[in-house]
User: Fold this.
Amino acid sequence: MSSPEESSPAALRARIAILEDGLVAAYELVTDTVPANPRGLRDWYMENLAEEVEEIFARRPHISADHAARQAPAITITVYGTPGPQGSKHATLHKQSRRVVTMESSKKVKPWRQDVKQAALEAMGKGEPLDGPLAVEMVFTLRDKPASRPTWWPTSARWSRLLWWRPAGAPDLSKLIRSTEDALTEARAWRDDARVVEYRRAAKVFVGQPGEPDALRAPGAVIRVWPLPVEAVSR
Assistant:
């Protein structure tokens, strides 16, 4: 049986959040029926399974830390705007100083970074910048799916306008990440982008791409950031 501290409302809410995606499956497994009201599953969980799950977490405390970090991002940011890659530069001669200066090749970088910064500030509110090791997920929605066959499509494979594929062309995913990380640093979403130690997912998708829950209805990106446990856990 769990101690009062472990079964406090705050602790239980944290565990419920960890298991939220699996509540329907848990209900069907235990009752062998489909829930009539999925929104009421939290109450069902509290009444029937909370203590059992608490005991599991008490026996294996690392489960709580690992799963909480994966299931509950500290920040979720949805940005609308055209993702701009950062990193490709071109040199030009300044007319007055006659010095060679380098500039970003893509004109989309500056407005994109501003879009990310504004969305991050709204998502954070008055929260402090995240510090310590962080895990990140970025899914970029680039544009509508083209109506023509991509140049890389295998000649031996059937193609149709009804098919879907991933945007395996410009802009480079790594350059989209670079511009977005810099914008998040400017917004003080984290102390420094050097705190990012893990990417759980980085992807490019088309607008409304089937099977992609983070594919937006317009160009933009969905960004999630998780703080990672700093203590070493022996297993």
